[in-house]
User: Which sequence fits this backbone?
C-alpha cells in the first residue's frame, strides 16, 4: 500500500513539480508569478486540445508549454516593462487563465484521448518496491526527474545561473557588469511559464486524460508556496511537490480502503499540508529570500522593471 | 464617480475630434484615462465578434437593463453587494500594506457560520433578533477565517497573499464537508445543500425586484470604512503603515496589532457578504455559494485604488458586467463566465497603464 | 604631461529637470597619471562619474577616446572601451560568493563557470597589487574594506581596462589604511593605468594626484597639473568659493571650560547598556561585551569604520533590535525591544537612511510631524491638523532649520530637505535622549553647520545625544566623549579633549589604544 501511495505521490506530484521548478527560476530572478495557476490551466487546455487534434501527446506537451509561456509573457510585460505590482498582476492572470480556459475548453470537456500512459522502463521497473515508484511512469514524469538536477546545474554551476541569481539579488550589480536585468527577468519568467504550462499539460494528457474546467484546482498557487518552502532550492522544491502529491494519493487510498474519513478532509489535506510546511520553514533559521523578491513583499519601490 | 462605459466611449470619441497638436496636458491625461478604460471593452468586443455576437448590442443592453427598469437595476445591485463587501475586505488591508485575497474563503465561512446559526439556534427567532444575530455569526465566521491568515502573518511571518489563497481552497472544501454532512438538508434526496433558513431570517426585499436590504448594509459599511480611514487617528496610522512600514515601526506603532486588527475586520466584512448571500438571495447554503465574489471584490478594490467610496462605483460596474454575462448566455449561448475575461482585461489595461500604485490618500 | 590621452570629456552637460548637475565640463585623463576630481558633496562629481561609466547619458557635449567620439551608455559599452569603476556603494551581490561576483563581471566565460581559471586570474591580480581576497567567502560576511578590495580586483581583472575610476574610495577606510590605498594608486599609475579619483578629501589629492580638477556647483572652477603648484589653501578656496567657513561653536559642556554658568557634576547616565551582545540580521555576532553610557546634556560620539556595527547598535538603542544578551536601561528602567517603550521614555531616533525609514510617500511634511514629533492633537476621533500646524509654526524649530513648506509632499523633497525634516521633527519632540546617525551625510557645508549647531544646543538644554558619524572631524568637534566600534567591540569612552584624530583612527583600525 505504501508503494502505491508513493507511486501516486510521484505521478500526482509531477504537474506541480514542473510548475515549482519553473517558478523557482522566475523567483530566483526576482519575479514572483501568482499567475502560475493561469499558466498551468492554459497549458492543460492547450496540451489537451492539441493532443485531440493531432493525436500526438508530444506535440500536445509542446503546445502546453507554449500556452503557459504566453500567459507568462503577459505577466512579464506588465511587471517588468510596465512596473505593475507583481502580486496583483499574477492574480489577474490567474483569473484570466481561468476565464479563458473555461470559455475555450467547453467543447473539450467530453473529449477523450490516449495521451501519455505509464511506460515502464525495462529491467529497472522490475525492482521490487522502488521499481514501481520510480520507473513506472509516463514519459513526462521521467522528464521531470531529469529537470531537477538540470535546474540545479544551470543555477549554480553556470555563468547563466550566476546572472539569473544576480538579477534576483542586486540588479544594480548586473547592470554595472554590462547586462540588462530586464532581459534576464523576461527570460526567467518565460521559462517559468513554459514549465508551468508543461505541468498543466502533464495533468490533462498524462494524469487524467481529460479536460475539466479549473482542473488544476490551485496547484499553481501551491507551487508558488512550495518554492518558498523549498528556500529556492531545486531538490527541496521537488520534495515539496511530491509531498503534495502524496497528500493527494492518500485521498485515493483512503477512499479505496473505505476508511470512514470524509473525502472533504482529504481534499483539504494537500493545501493544509502546504500551509504547515510553510509554517515549519518559518520557524527554522530564516531562509534567504532573493533580495529583489523581498522588496516585492515589503512593497518597497523598485519592482521588477 | 466612474462614468459608465457608454458615456466614456462617447466622450472619448468627442475628445478625439479636436485632437492633434495643442492638447492641454490635463485633457491629454483624461483622454488617456478614458482610452485605458475603453480599451478592454473594445478588445472584448473584437473577441465577441469572432463568435458572432454584436458587442455594441451587448454593451447597450448592459446599460439599458441596468438603468432601464427597476428589476434590472436591482439585479445589478444584488451582484454589486457582495463585490462591494469583499472589495472592502481587500481594500482595507491593502491600505495597511497587506494583500488579502482570502475574501473568497472568508465569505464562504461567513456564510457557513450564519447558516449554521440560522438552522440550529435561530429557527424560531423573530426577525429583529434573528437577522442581526445572523449578521454577527457571518461576521464572526469571516473574522475567524481571516484571523488564521492574520496569525500566520503576525506570528509566523508568512506572506498573507499565499496563505489566504491556500485557505480559500480549504474553505471551499470545508463548506463542502458541511453541506454533505452535518448541515445537509435531510429532505434533499442527496443533493448537497443545507436546510432552508426560516422566512423570518430573510432580508427585506424591495417590491418589484429581488433587491434586498443587503445593499444598504454594504453601502453603510463602505461609508464607515471610508470614515475610519480618512477621518480618524486609527485610519491615519493604518495609512502610514501601508505607505511605509519602516516609518510606522519607528514611530512606535503597534504594527502587529494593527495588522491583526485590519485583517480580522476585513474578514468580518467578507463574512457579512456571505451572510447576505444566504439571507438575501439563496436562502440556504450550497457548495458553490458566493463563488468568485471574493476575486471580483479584489478586482474591484484594485480598480478603485483601494478607496472605499470609489469602490462603490467599481463594484457597481463589475455588477453590471456580471449581469451582462447572464444576458450574454441567454441571447447567444456563450457561457456567462465569458465576462470573467472582460473583467481580467479591464484590470490588465489598468495595470499596464501604470495607474495602479500604492493606495491613494483618502 | 605623461602618457597618451585615454579619455576626454568636452563640454559635457547633464540636467535633471530644472537642476543642472553638470555644466560644460572639460576633462582629460592620461595614461600613467592620477587625476583627482575634487569637490564637496553636491558639487556634481557623482553625476559626472555616472556618465563616464555609462549609467547616465549627457544632454550636451561628448566623450572622446582613441581620437574619436564614443558613446559610453550603457555600462557595457564603457566597459568594452576599457573603463572600469569602483563604486562608492558597491555593486556586489551579498548573497553570492566572491568568485560568483567576479564571474558575473567577467565576459568570455561562456556557459560554464571556469572556476579554476578564474581563481588563477584572481590570484594574479591579487598578488600583483596586494589585494587579498578569498574566492570562496560569501560577500555578506566581508567588511566594507574587504568589499572594496573585491571591487578593485573585479575592475582590474577586466583585460582591456585602461581607465579606473574610484568614487570616494577612502570613505570606508580608517586613516591608517588610506596610506596603503594611495600606494595602490601609485602602483596602478606605474603600470600605465589612467586613474580617476573622485574625492572631497584634500589631503589625498595633495598626497598623490598629478592633476586636479575642482568642481563646484556643477562646473569646473579650476583644473591644473601638479607643476602649477598647489597647496591646501588654494584647493579649499576653489572647492568652497569665498563663503566664510563658520566654525561650529566648540562645546561648553559639562566637561568644558570651568567657570561656565552651569558647571554641574557628572550627570546621571540616561541610557545604559551593560554586558550587551548584539547580533546581526543573520544571527552573526556584531558587537560583544558592550558597555555604554549616554548622559544627559552630553554628546556621545560613536566612531568606527562603516559597517562596524553602527546600524545595529543604533537600532538596539531604540528598541528596533533586541540585545542578544545584557541589559539596556533608560532612566534606570530595563527596556523591552519595542520602539513604543523607548518613545514613551523620551528617546527619539533619527535613522541613518531617512529615505527608506522616514519618508512616507503620499503624505505631507505636516503629517510627518506627528509621528514621534509633535503630539497628535485629537479632534473628535481625528486629528486637529490646524492645531498641529500652529504648534509647528510657534515652535521656531522649523524656521531655524529652514524646513520646507509643511504642505509639501515629503516624497518630493531633496536629500538635504529630508534631513531637515527629520531633524526638525526630532527637535520638536524635545527628547530626553536623541539617537542620531550620520546627520550631515550628503549635505553641503552650510546645512551641516546649522545641524551641528542645533545638536550642540540640544545637548546644552539637557538631552543625551548619541551621535553616529563617519566624519571624524565632526565627531571631535561635537562630542564630549567618543567611543570607537572596532573588531566587534566597543572601545572607550575617551574624553574628546584627551584624544585626537590619529588616536581615534588607530583605534578604529586596531581596536586597542595605540
Assistant:
Amino acid at each position: 500500500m505504501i508503494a502505491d501511495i508513493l507511486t501516486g505521490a510521484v505521478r500526482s506530484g509531477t504537474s506541480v513539480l514542473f510548475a515549482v521548478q519553473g517558478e523557482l527560476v522566475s523567483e530566483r530572478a526576482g519575479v514572483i508569478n501568482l499567475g502560475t495557476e493561469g499558466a498551468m490551466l492554459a497549458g492543460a487546455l492547450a496540451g489537451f486540445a492539441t493532443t485531440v487534434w493531432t493525436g500526438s501527446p508530444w506535440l500536445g506537451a509542446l503546445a502546453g508549454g507554449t500556452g503557459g509561456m504566453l500567459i507568462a509573457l503577459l505577466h512579464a510585460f506588465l511587471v517588468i516593462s510596465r512596473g505593475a505590482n507583481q502580486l496583483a498582476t499574477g492574480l489577474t492572470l490567474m483569473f484570466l487563465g481561468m476565464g479563458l480556459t473555461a470559455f475555450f475548453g467547453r467543447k473539450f470537456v467530453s473529449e477523450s484521448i490516449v495521451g501519455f500512459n505509464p511506460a515502464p522502463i525495462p529491467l529497472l521497473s522490475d525492482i521490487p518496491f522502488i521499481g514501481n515508484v520510480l520507473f513506472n511512469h509516463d514519459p513526462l514524469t521521467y522528464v521531470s526527474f531529469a529537470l531537477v538536477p538540470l535546474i540545479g546545474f544551470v543555477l549554480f554551476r553556470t555563468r547563466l545561473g550566476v546572472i539569473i541569481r544576480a538579477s534576483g539579488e542586486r540588479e544594480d550589480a548586473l547592470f554595472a557588469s554590462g547586462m540588462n536585468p530586464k532581459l534576464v527577468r523576461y527570460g526567467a519568467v518565460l521559462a517559468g511559464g513554459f514549465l508551468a504550462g508543461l505541468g498543466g499539460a502533464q495533468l490533462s494528457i498524462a494524469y487524467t486524460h481529460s479536460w475539466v474546467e479549473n482542473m488544476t484546482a490551485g496547484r499553481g498557487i501551491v507551487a508558488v508556496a512550495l518554492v518558498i518552502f523549498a528556500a529556492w532550492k531545486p531538490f527541496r522544491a521537488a520534495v515539496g511537490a511530491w509531498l503534495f502529491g502524496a497528500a493527494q494519493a492518500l485521498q485515493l487510498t483512503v477512499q479505496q480502503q473505505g476508511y470512514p474519513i470524509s473525502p472533504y478532509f482529504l481534499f483539504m489535506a494537500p493545501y493544509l499540508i502546504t500551509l504547515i510546511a510553510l509554517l515549519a520553514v518559518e520557524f527554522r533559521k530564516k531562509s534567504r529570500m532573493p533580495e529583489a523578491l523581498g522588496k516585492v513583499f515589503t512593497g518597497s519601490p523598485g519592482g521588477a522593471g | 464617480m466612474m462614468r459608465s462605459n457608454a458615456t466614456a466611449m462617447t466622450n472619448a470619441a468627442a475628445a478625439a475630434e479636436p485632437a492633434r497638436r495643442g492638447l492641454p496636458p490635463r485633457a491629454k491625461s483624461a483622454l488617456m484615462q478614458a482610452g485605458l478604460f475603453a480599451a478592454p471593452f473594445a478588445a472584448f468586443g473584437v473577441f465577441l465578434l469572432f463568435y458572432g455576437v454584436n458587442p455594441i448590442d451587448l454593451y447597450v443592453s448592459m446599460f439599458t437593463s441596468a438603468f432601464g427598469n427597476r428589476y434590472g437595476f436591482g439585479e445589478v445591485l444584488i451582484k454589486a453587494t457582495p463585490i462591494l463587501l469583499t472589495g472592502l475586505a481587500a481594500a482595507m488591508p491593502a491600505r495597511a500594506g497587506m494583500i488579502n485575497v482570502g475574501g473568497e474563503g472568508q465569505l464562504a465561512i461567513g456564510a457557513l457560520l450564519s447558516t449554521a446559526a440560522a438552522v440550529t439556534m435561530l429557527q424560531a427567532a423573530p426577525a429583529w433578533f434573528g437577522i442581526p444575530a445572523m449578521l454577527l455569526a457571518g461576521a464572526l465566521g469571516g473574522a475567524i477565517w481571516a484571523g488564521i491568515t492574520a496569525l500566520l502573518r503576525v506570528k509566523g511571518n508568512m506572506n498573507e497573499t499565499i496563505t489566504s489563497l491556500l485557505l480559500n481552497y480549504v474553505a471551499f472544501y470545508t463548506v463542502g464537508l458541511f453541506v454533505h454532512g452535518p448541515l445537509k438538508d435531510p429532505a434533499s434526496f442527496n443533493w448537497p445543500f443545507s436546510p432552508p433558513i426560516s422566512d423570518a431570517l430573510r432580508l427585506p426585499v424591495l417590491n418589484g425586484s429581488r433587491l434586498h436590504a443587503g445593499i444598504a448594509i454594504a453601502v453603510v459599511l463602505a461609508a464607515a470604512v471610508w470614515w475610519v480611514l480618512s477621518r480618524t487617528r486609527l485610519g491615519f496610522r493604518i495609512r502610514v503603515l501601508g505607505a511605509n512600514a519602516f516609518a510606522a515601526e519607528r514611530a512606535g506603532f503597534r504594527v502587529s496589532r494593527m495588522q491583526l486588527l485590519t485583517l480580522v475586520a476585513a474578514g468580518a466584512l467578507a463574512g457579512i457578504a456571505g451572510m447576505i448571500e444566504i439571507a438575501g438571495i439563496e436562502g440556504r447554503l450550497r457548495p458553490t455559494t458566493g463563488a468568485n465574489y471574493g476575486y471580483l471584490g479584489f478586482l474591484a478594490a484594485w480598480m478603485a485604488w483601494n478607496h472605499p467610496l470609489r469602490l462603490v462605483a467599481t463594484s457597481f460596474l463589475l455588477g453590471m458586467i456580471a449581469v451582462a454575462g447572464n444576458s450574454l448566455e441567454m441571447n447567444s449561448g456563450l457561457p456567462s463566465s465569458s465576462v470573467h475575461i472582460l473583467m481580467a482585461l479591464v484590470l490588465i489595461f489598468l495595470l499596464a497603464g501604470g495607474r495602479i500604485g500604492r493606495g491613494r490618500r483618502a | 604631461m605623461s602618457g597618451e590621452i585615454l579619455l576626454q570629456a568636452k563640454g559635457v552637460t547633464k540636467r535633471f529637470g530644472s537642476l543642472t548637475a553638470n555644466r560644460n565640463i572639460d576633462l582629460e585623463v592620461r595614461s600613467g597619471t592620477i587625476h583627482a576630481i575634487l569637490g564637496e558633496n553636491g558639487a556634481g562629481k557623482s553625476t559626472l562619474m555616472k556618465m563616464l561609466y555609462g549609467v547616465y547619458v549627457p544632454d550636451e557635449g561628448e566623450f572622446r577616446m582613441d581620437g574619436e567620439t564614443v558613446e559610453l551608455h550603457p555600462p557595457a559599452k564603457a566597459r568594452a572601451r576599457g573603463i572600469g569603476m569602483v563604486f562608492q556603494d558597491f555593486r556586489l551581490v551579498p548573497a553570492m560568493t566572491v568568485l560568483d561576483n567576479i564571474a558575473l563581471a567577467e565576459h568570455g566565460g561562456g556557459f560554464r563557470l571556469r572556476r579554476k581559471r578564474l581563481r588563477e586570474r584572481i590570484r594574479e591580480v591579487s598578488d600583483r597589487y596586494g589585494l587579498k581576497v578569498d574566492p570562496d567567502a560569501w560577500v555578506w560576511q566581508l567588511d566594507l574594506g574587504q568589499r572594496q578590495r573585491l571591487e578593485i580586483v573585479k575592475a582590474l581583472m577586466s583585460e582591456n581596462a585602461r581607465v579606473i575610476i574610484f568614487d570616494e574610495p577612502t570613505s570606508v577606510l580608517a586613516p591608517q589604511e588610506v596610506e596603503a590605498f594611495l600606494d595602490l594608486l601609485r602602483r596602478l599609475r606605474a603600470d600605465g593605468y589612467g586613474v580617476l579619483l573622485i574625492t572631497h578629501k584634500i589631503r589625498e589629492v595633495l598626497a598623490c594626484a598629478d592633476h586636479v580638477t575642482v568642481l563646484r556647483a556643477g562646473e569646473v572652477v579650476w583644473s591644473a597639473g601638479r607643476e602649477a603648484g598647489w597647496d591646501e589653501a588654494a584647493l579649499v578656496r576653489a572647492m568652497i568659493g569665498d563663503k566664510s567657513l563658520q566654525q561650529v561653536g566648540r562645546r561648553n559642556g559639562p566637561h568644558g571650560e570651568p567657570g561656565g554658568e552651569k558647571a554641574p557634576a557628572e550627570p546621571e547616565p540616561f541610557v545604559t547598556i551593560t554586558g550587551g551582545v548584539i547580533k546581526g540580521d543573520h544571527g552573526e555576532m556584531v558587537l560583544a561585551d558592550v558597555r555604554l553610557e549616554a548622559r544627559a546634556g552630553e554628546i556621545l560620539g560613536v566612531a568606527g569604520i562603516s559597517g562596524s556595527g553602527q546600524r545595529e547598535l543604533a537600532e538596539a538603542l531604540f528598541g528596533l533590535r533586541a540585545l542578544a544578551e545584557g541589559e539596556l536601561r533608560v532612566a534606570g528602567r530595563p527596556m523591552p525591544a519595542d520602539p513604543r517603550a523607548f518613545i514613551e521614555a523620551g528617546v527619539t531616533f533619527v535613522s541613518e537612511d531617512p529615505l527608506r525609514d522616514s519618508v512616507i510617500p503620499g503624505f505631507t511634511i505636516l503629517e510627518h510631524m506627528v509621528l514621534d514629533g509633535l503630539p497628535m492633537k485629537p479632534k473628535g476621533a481625528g486629528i486637529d491638523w490646524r492645531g498641529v500646524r500652529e504648534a509647528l509654526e510657534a515652535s521656531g524649530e522649523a524656521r531655524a532649520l529652514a524646513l520646507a513648506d509643511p504642505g509639501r509632499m515629503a516624497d518630493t523633497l531633496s536629500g538635504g530637505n529630508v534631513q531637515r525634516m527629520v531633524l526638525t521633527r526630532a527637535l520638536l519632540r524635545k527628547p530626553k535622549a536623541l539617537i542620531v546617525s550620520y546627520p550631515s551625510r550628503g549635505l553641503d557645508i552650510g546645512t551641516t553647520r546649522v545641524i551641528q549647531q542645533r545638536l550642540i544646543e540640544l545637548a546644552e538644554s539637557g538631552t543625551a545625544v548619541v551621535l553616529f558619524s563617519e566624519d571624524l572631524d565632526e565627531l571631535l568637534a561635537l562630542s564630549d566623549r567618543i567611543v570607537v566600534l572596532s573588531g566587534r567591540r566597543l572601545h572607550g569612552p575617551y574624553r574628546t579633549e584627551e584624544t585626537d584624530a590619529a588616536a581615534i583612527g588607530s583605534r578604529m583600525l586596531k581596536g586597542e589604544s595605540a
